[in-house]
């Protein structure tokens, strides 16, 4: 699997570290809403198909990247710097209790 | 400044070794620069850092990822977004950058004693390095002056092509002896000279 870093170009996956699901938005740290925090920590889309993820190019420029990867084929369809990206809300985490 | 002791000293064996059926494939050396400085620009301040490199080191960096320049005594290249490595044969580069890079522009980090600079030069330099790192070492993909950040297993490396058949590899000082030993072994098949 190759990920094309916007700075370094195409590099082997062994140069990268997975940083988790890219669909999550951290709740307001002041929030005491347990459902919101529970959803942030535990709810995952787990899709069979395109998935938004955060990777770090830890064995390269060390930038954090927003990556769209197909979980069935490992095809990486988009990569951008995480600081610029901000994931599209259309594909964001399902609501608590909703069916997947 | 404190006299630096090379981490390669216990394994340093000048001379030629390996297969010389096609002559010497690579020459291996330690450049031991007096100054190795890392510069990091705050978001949006990259151009100001590039200007500081021109002012302090006299090197003009081309635009774009991994852009760099090298002379016989000085070198600089981008290795990450907004981040640059600047190297000088002489000591004193840190103090000069500390004066010219303002706090609101970015940061200056002295790595002079933290990195070991290994030079690999010769007709088989690309071939030997390609056995270590999964990046394209061809002159078109990796032009003279350019820099790359990559890794060999857990040994992080910043590589600059300082001449058409010459590369300078910057590794953490604590990994340098291990990397050097591996580099010597990998160079045996093309014949190498340590000098
Ligand atoms: Zn990168």
UniProtKB/TrEMBL annotation, chain A:
* GO terms, biological process: tetrahydrofolate metabolic process
The cross-references to Gene3D superfamilies, in alphabetical order and at most eight, read:
Folate-binding superfamily
Q: Name one GO molecular function term.
A: sarcosine oxidase activity
What is this protein's name? Sarcosine oxidase subunit delta family protein
TrEMBL record, chain B:
Where does the sequence pass through the membrane? none
Q: Which GO terms describe its biological process?
A: sarcosine catabolic process
What GO terms are given for molecular function?
Answer: sarcosine oxidase activity
The GCVT N-terminal domain, residue ranges:
93-192
- Protein name, UniProt field: Sarcosine oxidase subunit gamma family protein
Q: Which organism was this protein described from? A: Mesorhizobium zhangyense
């Amino acid at each position: 699997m190759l990920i094309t870093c916007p700075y370094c170009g195409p590099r082997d996956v062994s140069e990268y570290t997975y940083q988790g699901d890219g669909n999550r938005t951290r709740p307001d740290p002041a929030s005491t809403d347990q459902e919101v925090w529970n959803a942030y920590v535990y709810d995952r889309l787990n899709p069979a198909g395109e998935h938004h993820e955060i990777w770090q190019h830890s064995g390269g420029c060390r930038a954090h990247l927003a990556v769209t990867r197909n979980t069935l084929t490992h095809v990486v369809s988009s990569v951008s710097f995480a600081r610029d990206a901000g994931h599209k809300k259309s594909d964001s985490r399902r609501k608590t209790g909703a069916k997947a | 400044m404190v006299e630096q002791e090379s981490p390669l000293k216990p394994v340093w064996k000048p001379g030629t070794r390996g297969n010389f059926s096609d002559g010497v494939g690579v020459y291996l050396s330690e450049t031991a620069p007096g100054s190795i400085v890392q510069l990091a620009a705050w978001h949006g301040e990259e151009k100001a850092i590039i200007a500081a490199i021109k002012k302090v080191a006299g090197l003009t960096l081309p635009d774009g990822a991994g852009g760099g320049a090298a002379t016989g005594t000085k070198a600089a290249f981008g290795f990450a977004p907004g981040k640059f490595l600047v190297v000088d044969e002489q000591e004193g580069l840190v103090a000069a950058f500390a004066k010219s890079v303002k706090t609101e522009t970015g940061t200056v980090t002295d790595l002079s004693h933290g990195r070991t600079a290994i030079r690999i030069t010769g007709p088989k330099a690309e071939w030997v390095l390609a056995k270590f790192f999964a990046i394209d070492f061809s002159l078109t993909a990796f032009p003279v002056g350019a820099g790359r950040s990559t890794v060999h297993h857990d040994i992080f490396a910043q590589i600059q092509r300082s001449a058409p058949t010459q590369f300078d590899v910057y590794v953490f000082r604590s990994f340098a002896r291990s990397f050097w030993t591996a580099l010597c072994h990998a160079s045996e098949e093309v014949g190498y000279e340590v000098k």
